[in-house]
Amino acid sequence: LMEEVGKLVVAVPIGSRDEIDKLVHTMMFIVDRAKRTLSLPEPFDEASLKRMQFHADELRQNGENLKVATTDAGARKSIGIFEKTLCHIHGHTERLRFRRWSPAAQKDKVAEKISWPLVFAVFVDAGVDGLLVGLAFTASVGTGWCMSIATCIEMGFLGLSFCASIRNMTTSKLKQSVFVLGPSVVLALAGILGDIIGTAMKSNPEVFVGFVSFAIVALIFLVTQELLAEARETAGDSISVNICLFVGMLVGIAVGAVLG
Q: At residue 219, what are phi and psi to the nearest 5 degrees?
């Protein structure tokens, strides 16, 4: 291990990213092997070996898919899938079977690191969505229902992702509850505020149109500059992204026609 540390000390000033990465992963393997030696893990059982064999075959198929990738986006997607399978196999090698008389390992207290920019962005998004829904109801009940349905779908997926992120940031149940319920409360309050503002500004059409325009432009910017770009990067050249876009537009037009 110290020999590899010495090599790393020499390699760092040279600045070769590949060499540094190679040495770091070599030391990680040595550390893992030392931990297994100290913990005296039991041999793999038959079920674990079968699972690893399944994932090894899956990894081979992932490698074949990577070889036939023809675009940068497709290659990035294939590498990501390959890496997930590889990490899953590595996880199998790190699992230790329960030993009846072994002392229970003490869990280290995980340092909390709240991503405040993410929390702020989600709360602002919820506020803008609520404001738009409130203003939409003021302009037209049918439009308000369309916006409400669309917002439910959008915030549903955003909520799932946000909840998973918050769960990884803190173990405090109180903080998790506050951060998760916060956007819903902001959305409801912003909707009430939007309705109040819309009702009060009906006598001043210019200001009312200004509020509606701001909310719509903010929503369009989010969809075109963030969601569509991220979906295209994730899905690569898949035509499903374009199909879903137009299907969603068609559904929105249909719902608007039904609700009036």
A: -70, -45
Which residues have CB under 8 Å from 120's CB, separation 6+? none
Query: Phi and psi at residue 111, in whole multiples of 5°?
Result: -70, 130
Q: Of how many residues is the chain composed? A: 260
Q: Do 99 and 158 meet the contact criterion of CB atoms below 8 Å apart?
A: no
User: What's the one-letter identity of residue 42?
Assistant: E
Q: Which residues contact 193 (CB under 8 A, 6 or more apart)?
A: 130, 131, 134
C-beta of residue 139 within 8 angstroms of C-beta of residue 156: no
**Rounded average pLDDT over 28-43:** 77
Question: How many CB atoms are closer than 10 A to CB 105?
Answer: 8
- Indicate the burial class of 146 (C-beta count within 10 angstroms; 0-12, 13-18, 19 or more): buried
The confidence band for 186, taking pLDDT boundaries of 50, 70 and 90, is: very high
Distance CA 6, CA 17 (A): 16
CA 36 to chain CA centroid, nearest Å:
32
- Helix boundaries (H) for the chain: 2-14, 17-39, 46-67, 72-94, 116-139, 141-169, 173-201, 205-222, 228-235, 240-259
Q: How confident is the model at residue 99 (pLDDT cuts 50, 70, 90)?
A: very low
pLDDT score recorded for residue 88: 77
pLDDT at 103: 43
Look up the pTM and report it: 0.50
The mean pLDDT value of the chain amounts to 78
Which tokens hold the place of 106?
A: 């003490």
Residues in contact with 40: Cβ distance below 8 Å, sequence separation at least 6, in sequence order: none
Whole-number pLDDT of residue 111: 57
